[in-house]
Every structure is written in C-alpha cells, then in structure tokens.
What we know:
This protein is of the alpha/beta class. It has helices at 26-31, 47-54, 66-78, 95-106, 147-151, 154-162, 177-189, 201-206, 208-214, 225-235, 243-251, 300-312, 318-332; strands spanning 10-13, 17-23, 38-41, 59-64, 85-92, 110-116, 123-129, 132-138, 165-169, 193-197, 220-224, 263-268, 271-277, 280-284. It has a 9-stranded mixed β-sheet, with helices on both faces.
Amino acid sequence: xxxxxxxxxxxxxxxxxxxxxxxxxxxxxxxxxxxxxxxxxxxxxxxxxxxxxxxxxxxxxxxxxxxxxxxxxxxxxxxxxxxxxxxxxxxxxxxxxxxxxxxxxxxxxxxxxxxxxxxxxxxxxxxxxxxxxxxxxxxxxxxxxxxxxxxxxxxxxxxxxxxxxxxxxxxxxxxxxxxxxxxxxxxxxxxxxxxxxxxxxxxxxxxxxxxxxxxxxxxxxxxxxxxxxxxxxxxxxxxxxxxxxxxxxxxxxxxxxxxxxxxxxxxxxxxxxxxxxxxxxxxxxxxxxxxxxxxxxxxxxxxxxxxxxxxxxxxxxxxxxxxxxxxxxxxxxxxxxxxxxxxxxxx
Length: 347
C-alpha cells in the first residue's frame, strides 16, 4: 500500500491574494493605463480599480498568490484527506479577507491567516479582454506578515512541526525572510524537506542576500528557465546559459543538511523540464498540448510545483513527482486563472 496524504503534512507560507477576475472592455484598461497582456504591481492610480472590478456583473473569486496556489493544487491532486496542506500568510480584517477564508476552505486547505487592521487584504485583479489577461496585484496586507505575532505562537508553530514537507515561493523573501529562515532551519535540523522557488528574476537580483541566507537549507530548488538564467548571472556562475549546467552548479552550492542531496528542478515551458537526480542532470519531456487548447499559462509554474508536492508528500519518487507536476500544469493551462476541475484524472 503506497502512503497517502496525512493532515498538515505539507506546509506553505507566502503572500495570500484574493484573485478577482472579470471581463472588462478596452475603456476600462485605458482608464487605469493597463496593457491587455501584462503583470504589474498596483500603484496609487489602480487602487479604485479593485472595487470597480468587484462590482462587475460576472466576477469570479479564487484563493490566490503563488504559494497558496501551489498548496491548493497539491491538495486537489491528493483529494483526501482534506487539509493535507497548511498555509500561513497575512490578510486584512475586511470583506475580501472573508471571501479569501471561504475560498481556502472550499479548496480544503488549512489556511491559518494572520489578520491585521493596518492594510486591506491583498488582491490580484485579472482584467480579461478576449484572450488576454492583464494582472494587477496589490500586495497590501500580504506585506504585513509578522513572525512574532503569528509564526512564533505555540499553536501555529505546532503546525510547522507537524509538517514533513515545506514549500515557500521566493516572493515571501520580500516580506519575512526571518520567518523563512526559522522554518528552513527546523526542516534541516529534523531532516525534513524544505523547498524554495526562485519565483521571479527580480528576487535573485534585489533580494539576493536574503535568498542566499536561506539557500544552505534548501533541499529542492524550483524555477523556470528565465529565473534560472538570472540566478546564474547573479551568482557569477561563469559564462553559461546551459540550463543543465546551471542546475548542476545550483545543486552544488553549500548545504547544511548533508543527509539529503539538493534537487534542482527547472521548468522551461513547452520544452523539457531539467532536474538533478543524484550526480546526473536528467531531462523530462512535458505533455503534448495543442496550442489552440492553451487558455492561460499564468498559473503553470505554480501548478507544476503543486503537482510535484502532492506526490512528494506521499513519498513518491522524483520521476513520479515530476510526472504529477507536468499533469497539473497541463490541466491548468487549459483554463482561465489557476482553476481546476472537481477531480484530477491522474493515474
């Protein structure tokens, strides 16, 4: 009998955002100075937009943010028991925060949010025009996570201790690197699996110091080809743009827990996924998909990680983890936003 999920075995911490998507027209984009296909952080001129889009006739809400997306997909892949995934992050005490709680519950994720009153709940508006999506993220409360007031509390730390696998997207390095370090050290000292995502080129560039403090505790490093290239450049890996070589060098960076060899997994969109297995770098081909079936590639990276984690937490092989990652990404890119059917069809 293969092991299955156990409650709270997977722990994620990150920036929770309420995804709000609605179909808008060109006038709406022009009003807020948006491009049809783009991803930006909200500025002051966008603040009123979130309430305006929420008043549109057909609006959809989903629990979002990179890490939350991944643990949500891992839970969907596992199905039962519920609450295999725990999630920590900061929200506001407002209407959007209540919707976010409800959506996390519907996804069967054990979300334990830190709520504060200074900032409203973080949101990501997806303004849809035809086949295009313009994403505007307002981190707001997500930036206010407080280690002393949440992670360090006995009841919350017990959930960290209960977990076997930890996953944090690099985006959270901009919010609470000290929280990441505390979790990473716990994982390392107890020979559990700590995984981190490079998340975006700007993290390797501007939050390099925080990232490299965490790196010695990283057992699994995720990223895509663009993030890997930026990381390599910032690390001064001699002139190489060979993704397999970058993976090999990232694997050999200093590591605290010697009982586990670091695994590096880099996705490349429709091209092969690159992973280090032992001393070898192996290529895994992704599932074929007709270009016409692709609706939205935005959540593909989060979905890949979610699929991967769903098998990892059940102690499956690296090959099986990657196969599940490819399956989840293949499902997500056929749909708008990071959404999925009721049940996975994963053998």
